[in-house]
Design a protein that fits this description.
Layout (H helix, E strand, L loop, with lengths): L5 E8 L1 H4 L4 E4 L4 E4 L13 E4 L5 E3 L19 H12 L2 E6 L15 H14 L4 E9 L7 H4 L2 H15 L7 E5 L8 H10 L5 E5 L14 H18 L8
Parallel strand pairs: 1-6, 1-7, 4-6, 7-8, 8-9
Antiparallel strand pairs: 2-3, 4-5
Helix pairs in contact: 2-7
Length: 248
């Protein structure tokens, strides 16, 4: 791959991928706001770009999903810590494609639905003209499916999503790194986690977020946890899929 070709990473799923690290509820004004704290691991870098909502490339910085998950208050997610860690190891130019939207269930990411089609459109634009190469899709979703009517079909729908994305992007072995839930309805979370951890498709790996520190809402990862998750996702990518390291 030429040095100027972007290494494209898709960030998708729901709120914990979109990022809620540092999001605080202001009881006086009855609204949420981001505290603005950016850890060193998430600092902007000229070689880390993001595709914004208007399909323009710009320097990436948190909150990465501010104009994508625009109906919610976004904060720190795993994307910048992931990108900085990968950049440090392999160099080049990172192209992040944020697609996550909070509160979304797996059925809303099915082929033909708006979220799915928007994601595919954004990724195709990112590689148009051969200027980028999709390296992996990072997926953190499932909290909205922690209910009786969804848990039994989650694995089937997740596997279908992987097949469809690979087919529509003409990348039959696209690396897919998913996150096993850290939070959700206690009655059903283990069923969703079991489904996530049991997927055995080629080039699909799962990292576990269980035990990472949550915000006061007991649903979203705090800033420090998002940094940790980003590094874990980077390690999963580098260890399982990064051919650039083989020649070093």
């Amino acid at each position: 791959m030429s040095e100027d070709k972007k290494q494209i990473f898709i960030l998708s799923g729901q709120s914990n991928m979109a990022g809620r690290g540092g999001v605080i509820y202001d009881s006086h004004h009855h609204k949420k706001h981001w505290d603005g704290v950016v850890p060193p691991e998430c600092h902007p870098h000229p070689s880390i770009l993001r595709l914004n909502a208007h399909l323009h490339w710009e320097q990436a910085r948190d909150p990465l999903h501010a104009d994508i998950d625009h109906k919610k208050t976004c904060g720190v997610g795993p994307g910048m810590a992931f990108a900085n860690t990968v950049l440090e190891r392999v160099g080049g130019t990172m192209g992040l494609v944020p697609c996550a939207v909070g509160g979304t269930a797996i059925k809303e990411w099915a082929r033909g639905e708006h979220l799915y089609e928007s994601m595919i459109k954004r990724v195709k634009f990112a590689v148009e003209g051969g200027v980028g190469e999709v390296k992996a899709l990072l997926w953190y979703q499932g909290e909205s499916d922690c209910q009786e009517c969804d848990v039994e079909v989650y694995k089937e729908k997740m596997e279908k999503l992987i097949y469809d994305v690979r087919e529509d992007l003409s990348l039959p072995l696209l690396p897919f790194i998913q996150v096993a839930l850290a939070s959700g309805d206690k009655k059903y979370i283990e069923k969703i986690r079991e489904a996530q951890l049991s997927i055995k498709l080629p080039n699909v790996v799962c990292v576990d977020a269980k035990g990472l520190t949550l915000n006061h809402d007991n649903l979203h990862l705090c800033t420090e946890a998002q940094v940790q998750l980003g590094k874990t996702l980077a390690d999963a990518y580098l260890c399982n899929f990064c051919s650039s390291l083989e020649s070093q």
